[in-house]
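Database export, one record per block. Field names are fixed; values are copied verbatim from the stored entry.
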Amino acid sequence: MKSSRIIIALLVVIGFVSVPLTVGSVFAEEKVYTCATDATWPPMEMVNENKEIVGFDIDFLNAVAKEAGFKVQFKNTAWDGIFAGIAAGKYDMIISSVTITEERKKTMSFSTPYINAGQVLIVPKNSNAVIISDLKGQKVGAQIGTTGAMEIKNAGNVELKSYDEIGLAFEDMAVGRISGVVCDTPVAAQYALEQEEYKEKFKIVGDVLTTEYYGVVVQKSDRKLLDLINKGIEAVQKKGIDKQLEAKWLR
């Protein structure tokens, strides 16, 4: 009788011990993925005064991760090497205002599109230009390797000046080194309409030059992660979380 009581007591103790271990193991299974972002592209991705990476893309991917059951660790990465990094496996994904193009789809995989952001032209307020070709023979700036740079090249009669960071292009335009900047609509709105030092100097002109969609990038062969991200995006869009974030960051 005494021995059976001891056995029962041991079973009870084991049961109590095993419960927290089981709960802990569930949390341990939540996967943490690394995500590269070039945090120089406000309001989509940027570094705030507390040295934190913030912006629409950051909030959006965190919401996607929450819905899909994983976590994200962001890594600030220069744009000119960001695609080489995903190909080399330095991180698991990219969210960095990356426009989905047929050329890029040859070497990487994209999630479901999550926002439409075409290219626009920004010029000084005293400029009469409405389209890029109106700036014939002048310099127009864009971030290196972006679709904005492609639009300037396609214009044919202007000189493209490339920048590692889009903010440097606006700085140059403010002092007259270039005559225009081409970039994504959300970024244009941030610099031309919101920033105190620029909103009295610049204006967005003409029509949106392109119809473009951003997507989250993963390695070409990583179908499992892509499906997980798409699952999260579907949930975020269905719940209207993306629209809430647009209201927070883009309007």
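Remark 1: Confidence is low (pLDDT under 50) at residues 1-27.
Remark 2: The first helix runs from residue 2 to 28.
End of record.
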